[in-house]
């Protein structure tokens, strides 16, 4: 018999083991200790602008004969006095490899009941901005190798919103930088210590392109490969297909190499065909991993 209930401290070790089992199959993950599970998973707040409110009532486990078969984390964002209805986020849905689809359905039903009690009318599942620091370099994605999980989500009323691709490149030597043919283009950069780098391209007193990169110190320490990640790359629509994005990627990679960073990772929306083409031409390797966001 499957029972879904709120996570208890005595479940932490088993729940942590379930996460570690999944982490061993994924790139850019590392095992957690039960204490780290509490700080890095249960009490993690995700991206600051989401204003997530971790709530122990949304930490749910499916158990059978005292064995933890599944784990879900549901949270709500927004301030308590906001006039708009709160936004719900399903951050995690981890299932034991041998668990039946009934376990998945039971957890999703319990998640629905939690959100109903919170007055939530819209739920987003597995958005990258809600990711955990220990998992996929901070991207909290649902891997696509559990078709039973994907099917159960569809049966529970979730609709696919976005699919994410992950790329990486090993930085071994400086890259030649291809300068855009745009007279009067100016490059500006800012560094927030060793943690973050930003470059802007200005044209006629306007910022027309911007790239931001962040160091991943914990992943670097765990993997012993100094790693940074692309936060975002933006090029104004009227200045696309002029080589601005290519130059920013080249400039950023050379800056990282000068700082002894040897691995550069990024995730992009599958609909961004132009960036996919640019990355492949620039020698980035697409990983055998897919992330999915549902609503």
Descriptive report:
It is a single chain. This protein is an alpha+beta fold. The chain has 7 helices and 13 strands. It has helices at 12-23, 34-42, 101-117, 147-155, 217-223, 244-258, 273-281, and strands at 3-6, 52-53, 59-64, 67-77, 87-95, 122-125, 160-170, 186-192, 196-203, 206-215, 227-235, 263-269, 285-294. The strands form 2 sheets. It has a 7-stranded mixed β-sheet with strand order 8-9-10-11-12-7-13. Helix 1 crosses helix 2 (34-42) and helix 3 crosses helix 4. The longest helix is centred in the middle third of the chain and has 17 residues, at 101-117. The chain is elongated, with a radius of gyration of 21 Å. The two termini are 29 Å apart.
Our count of helices gives 7
Radius of gyration: 21 Å
Amount of helix: 25-40%
Distance between the termini: 29 Å
Residue share in β-strands: 25-35%
The ordered H/E elements are EHHEEEEHEHEEEEHEHEHE
Unreliably modeled segments? none
Net shape: elongated
Q: How much is the average pLDDT?
A: 90
Oligomer: single chain
Strand order of the largest sheet: 8-9-10-11-12-7-13
